[in-house]
Amino acid sequence: MSKATIMLDSNNKFITEALSNQFSNALAGNRLESVNFHFKDFDGVAYHMSNPNDDKNKIMLSIYLSYYEELQEHGINERIRQEYGIYVAEKPEPQYNISLIYDLTEIPQKYDDLIFKAARLKRNCLASVFEKYFEFQERGDAGQNRAVIHYREDETMYVEAKSDRVTVIFSTVFNDPADIIIGKIFLQEIHGKRASQTAPQVIFSLGEPPLELKNSNARISEGIGYVTFVLLPKHTCKASRDNTIDLLSIFRSYLHYHIKGTKVIKVCYCFTNLLLLLLRIGLHPIENALQNGRILKNTESRKTESYTRAEDYNGSYFRKRRITWISNSEYRNRG
């Protein structure tokens, strides 16, 4: 399974490339260009990279998350200030939740870590929830309320801590019947065949929410799937939690990326087979006739020693090796 899938990166590649270009130009003393980029990430997250007050010596990176208010209940502001320190703007850009400001005149020579953190802005926002409940489990504090994050319009993430585990549940919508089939196979394979003994347990249910969400307002529908991750202390300890958060923050996008990829591969496979079939039954004479601007009509078909019959929609036939249409009238004239 792992060899056939592509693991998405929790870092935003556009942020990495754009900041690398700006920082390297600033350190090299090159002319600084104005910046004004609007772009989006998975789950409807929006970014804006610009020069605040048209000052080319400064770069502002802003992020908008539709579920920001829910993250505030779990300490997102403290988490972001802890991670980004002096680069966090006192007041975010209008219509955005968080803004980071980089002064290009004060960029350190070794700025890779600075860019790495900036590219993980969305991931670090979600980390505030996961880290909070990982700490609950580590302290044995299992009486806390479940976290409910509506990370998409119709999709929700639930996080709950017990004394011996942390349970993370994603609800996801399958809009197309084919998505349901592919997603079910994909997740059942993950559930039934884990990549290693250290991987967490993964449980998939379709239509019905898992027992952990009993007596909650979790949706019940044919097109709703629930994916449950059971994280043990070895997955949530300080040595492992960064990797665990990386994978959880990108899971929903990873799932639907491969569902859509599977559908594309299936379409390409069917199209390739169709082309091969058409070539075998005589696509090349059809193409030749179309290039000549006409298709010769024929009401009868016959087979002789010199000609091989090829059925098509108008009953015409052709020489097997010569790309030529032959009508009955031509056949009689040749006879």
Automatic annotation (TrEMBL):
Pfam families: P34-Arc. It is found in: Cytoplasm, Cytoskeleton. GO terms for molecular function: actin filament binding; structural constituent of cytoskeleton. GO terms for cellular component: Arp2/3 protein complex. GO terms for biological process: actin filament polymerization; Arp2/3 complex-mediated actin nucleation. It comes from the Eukaryota. Keywords: Actin-binding, Cytoplasm, Cytoskeleton. InterPro entries: ARPC2, ARPC2/4. Its main location: cytoplasm. Component of the Arp2/3 complex. Functions as actin-binding component of the Arp2/3 complex which is involved in regulation of actin polymerization and together with an activating nucleation-promoting factor (NPF) mediates the formation of branched actin networks. Belongs to the ARPC2 family. This is Arp2/3 complex 34 kDa subunit. It comes from Trichinella pseudospiralis. The lineage of its organism: Eukaryota, Metazoa, Ecdysozoa, Nematoda, Enoplea. The gene is Arpc2.
